[in-house]
């Protein structure tokens, strides 16, 4: 298991382990301290000159007094201070330059992936029959080789190392941004023009197109802007939401309620696990009346069914949440976002109430939407394994996004765009880890993200420290009330 944390974003183009940024900050502090020493030495030198204890003012001193020794000492000290300042500044600059180069190389790698996958998607769209025939030929040859024992049977291959590899994650990220090239190929748009036009699009546009296709298949005949309206059909179409169960815990004598979280690990520990029939949202209230503050904890995707069933934390909700970030999108709010909003309102939160949100997997899409909402007072959000790269928060709202190198789920949000308020914490979580046989996506496990959160709490990196201070300073003492909510979609009228 690799305990190194890789930081990216947050208003910087540098990408590096948190320890590098810590060392750069230390070197900056050392240079500042050395400059202060230089100012103090200059003051001491002036005082000695006023006392006539240096060569420049030693005319009345006894002949046996060696002013040159004082001069040598002062000069040596000044030289040492100057060297210290230059060395600290040069080392700090070199470290940051290496982080900038790493970040630039990473961005170039992402662009190469996008170009290659985009070109392949365009080719498939331009010649679908040829692509299908090629795929069928490869599949047939693989099947024949497996039947003759030339290669292992596909159903005997452990695909988990493939799905958990950083290369697969990069492929998923590029694929999420490439459906526009596929459509352009089908429309016979030249490849160069397709790639240029696709630079401004990405996963949100792809999700919006998919929702539009679902509406057309359902027979609505409407555009993507009307997806999810009444009568649209059950596939990838949102429906009304209702509270199935709300369980509130009030303070009782002898029954202590949880205290306010002091760090990111405590936030991660309180996120509900995504289990069928379990509560999906937990809200903690601290304080009373106008002074009340709220922390919302949001679970992840419970089911991957594309039919909009009773469980709102599903693929329909995921796609609506991602599509909401598309330019000029007019899709209805995702069920997950509506669930969190309803939970906060039921718990007593108003539009001006300070809110902190912590979410896992698909639930992070809702957290990102809330962090960007102008009608709420969200002061910070943290997401674990969530596809939120294309959802920039409101100005000044810090978002800490955890993404494991072996987790393809965050990559389904595409490459996105950098935001000065969104800091990504990445980690290789599976190095040397023991993986259970039934663990399909081990890099996506909430338990492993909780491990990474504990590492963040132990880090001295300035931006991570600042976010921890936001969490620790958000609320004090014990919770006034804790409520767990279970939501469900209402039955379809169709």
From TrEMBL:
Gene3D superfamilies: alpha/beta hydrolase. It comes from the Bacteria. InterPro entries: AB_hydrolase_fold. This is Alpha/beta hydrolase. The lineage of its organism: Bacteria, Bacillati, Actinomycetota, Actinomycetes, Micrococcales.
């Amino acid at each position: 298991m690799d305990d190194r944390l890789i930081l990216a974003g947050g208003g910087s183009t540098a990408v590096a382990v948190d320890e590098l940024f810590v060392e750069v900050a230390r070197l900056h502090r050392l240079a500042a301290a050395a400059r202060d020493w230089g100012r103090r030495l200059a003051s001491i030198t002036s005082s000695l000159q006023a006392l006539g204890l240096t060569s420049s003012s030693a005319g009345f001193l006894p002949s046996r007094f060696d002013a040159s020794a004082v001069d040598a000492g002062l000069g040596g000290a000044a030289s040492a201070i100057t060297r210290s300042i230059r060395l600290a500044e040069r080392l700090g600059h070199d470290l940051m330059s290496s982080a900038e180069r790493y970040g630039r190389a990473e961005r170039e790698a992402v662009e190469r992936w996008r170009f290659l996958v985009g070109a392949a998607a365009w080719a498939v769209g331009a010649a679908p029959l040829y692509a299908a025939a090629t795929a069928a030929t490869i599949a047939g040859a693989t099947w024949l080789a497996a039947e003759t024992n030339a290669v292992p049977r596909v159903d005997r291959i452990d695909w988990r190392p493939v799905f958990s590899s950083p290369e697969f994650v990069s492929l998923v990220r590029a694929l999420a941004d490439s459906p526009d090239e596929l459509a352009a190929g089908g429309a016979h748009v030249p490849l160069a023009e397709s790639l240029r036009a696709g630079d401004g699009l990405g996963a949100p546009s792809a999700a919006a197109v998919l929702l539009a296709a679902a509406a057309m298949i359902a027979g609505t005949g409407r555009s993507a802007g009307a997806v999810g309206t009444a009568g649209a059909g059950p596939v990838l179409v949102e429906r009304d939401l209702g509270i199935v169960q709300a369980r509130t815990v009030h303070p009782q004598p002898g029954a202590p309620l949880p205290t306010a979280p002091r760090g990111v690990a405590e936030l991660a520990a309180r996120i509900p696990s995504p289990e069928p029939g379990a509560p999906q949202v937990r809200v903690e209230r601290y304080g009373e009346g106008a002074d009340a503050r709220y922390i919302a904890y949001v679970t992840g995707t419970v089911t991957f069914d594309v039919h909009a069933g009773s469980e709102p934390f599903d693929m329909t909700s995921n796609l609506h949440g991602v599509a909401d970030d598309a330019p000029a999108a007019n899709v209805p709010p995702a069920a997950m976002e509506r669930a969190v909003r309803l939970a906060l309102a039921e718990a007593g939160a108003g539009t001006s109430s300070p809110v902190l949100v912590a979410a896992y997997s698909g639930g992070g899409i809702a957290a990102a939407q809330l962090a960007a909402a102008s009608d709420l007072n969200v002061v910070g959000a943290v997401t674990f394994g969530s596809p939120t790269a294309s959802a920039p928060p409101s100005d000044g709202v810090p978002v800490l996004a955890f993404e494991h190198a072996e987790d393809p789920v965050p990559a389904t949000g595409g490459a996105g765009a950098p935001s000065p308020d969104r800091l990504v914490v990445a980690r290789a979580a599976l190095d040397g880890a023991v993986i259970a046989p039934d663990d399909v996506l081990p890099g996506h496990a909430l338990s492993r993200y909780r491990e990474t959160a504990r590492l963040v709490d132990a880090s001295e990196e300035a931006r991570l420290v600042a976010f921890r201070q936001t969490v620790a300073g958000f609320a004090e003492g014990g919770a006034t009330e804790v409520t767990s909510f279970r939501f469900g979609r209402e039955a379809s009228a169709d």
